[in-house]
Write a structure and sequence with these properties.
TIM Barrel
Amino acid sequence: MIDIHTHLHPERLALAIRRWFRENSNWDLKHPFDKESVVDVLRSNNVERFVFCSYAHKPGIARSINLWLAQTARAIDRYGLPLFTVHLDDPNFLDDAKRAIDDGCIGLKVHEDVQSLQINDPRFEEVFVEIEKIGGFVLAHMGPVPWRLEPEVGVHRVEQVLAKHPKLNLVLAHMGTPDTQKYLDILGQNEGLYLDTTMAFTNVNGLSHVLDVDAIERNSAKILFGTDYPNIPYVYDFEPNVLKSLGLSDDALRAILGENARLLLKPFL
């Protein structure tokens, strides 16, 4: 398996995130979040490589987070590959992106809700160009899911981005909830558009819903396995086991659990 969506954060930020979940959700997050523990769990679950990220939720911290992400990747011999972060209110956010890429980051994580920004903000355009140059990708958490569902508006933003950057690899977290079916309908029309499975097949808050298994089978070449580990309120193998229970073909399962990510990550493996 290749896990395209995990989290490693500097300790102070990781503690703040855990505190937020304790105070604002019913998620019981108990998995250790230090890099050694995360690596141990992934290896024990036969994950051959993983992608990890953090995010700048305010100006002034992106550069130091990116430095930490790149250093962490080297410390684990790039078993995990890092996505950088930018904050668009930083005056030198494009320089932050270029520095992170030069330091070994393979793409960008955007969390619209946490960062209070939108994927179609025109300031992102120069950053997207830099990602296109290296064959990297953007991992985007669209809108305020699972805390609120805002159907359709995210689709409009994604379509705007892809119209301007048709060669950009754009991975939408959580199967694009709440617009999963709409994205499944347009995956074939957009070469670089992908969905990741993170939490979408579980029973956690608004991230789970009735999914069209036939549509997932048809689009299995554009779906990537992700988990959000270690910030999940269940054991690591719960979601892959749910995926395996859906009745997908062996070919579709192999594609989703590893082969698609292997192709996407080819420039960096």
